[in-house]
Specification:
- By secondary structure, the protein is mostly helical.
- It has a domain of 57 residues.
- It is rod-shaped and about 135 Å long.
């Protein structure tokens, strides 16, 4: 009867551990319905390639990215816009001096500029 009692106690301990693990898993479980097929495929691909199939870490990374903890998605675009604006300004500045020059008069056969006088 001692063996039987010991087995029951061991089974009770194992059941308690099992229940604790099951409860912990339920707290971390998430069910998502109505996911577009392409979005699901893209999520699973990202999880496999970057997080070795860990969906939880993939979701955390996406949320952190959204919050801007990893990087601000608009930061890169703003940086590129600033660079392009600087380039446009430089081009405009290089064009202006050429446009502001006085128009030249007609040239003679020798290639020299002729002055026009009003009579």
């Amino acid at each position: 009867m001692g063996d039987e009692q010991a087995k029951l106690e061991q089974e009770k301990r194992l059941r308690a551990k099992w229940d604790a693990c099951s409860e912990a898993a339920k707290k971390r479980t998430i069910w998502i319905n109505r996911i577009p097929v392409k979005s699901k495929e893209e999520f699973l691909k990202l999880a496999d390639e970057e997080f070795e199939g860990d969906w939880g870490m993939t979701l955390k990374w996406l949320i952190d990215f959204r919050k801007g903890l990893l990087s601000n998605p608009n930061e890169q675009l703003a940086g590129r816009i600033d660079i392009l604006a600087d380039k446009i300004t430089a081009i405009e500045n290089s064009i202006k001096p050429e446009q502001e020059e006085k128009p030249k008069g007609p040239k003679g056969a020798d290639g020299k500029e002729k002055k026009i006088t009003n009579r």
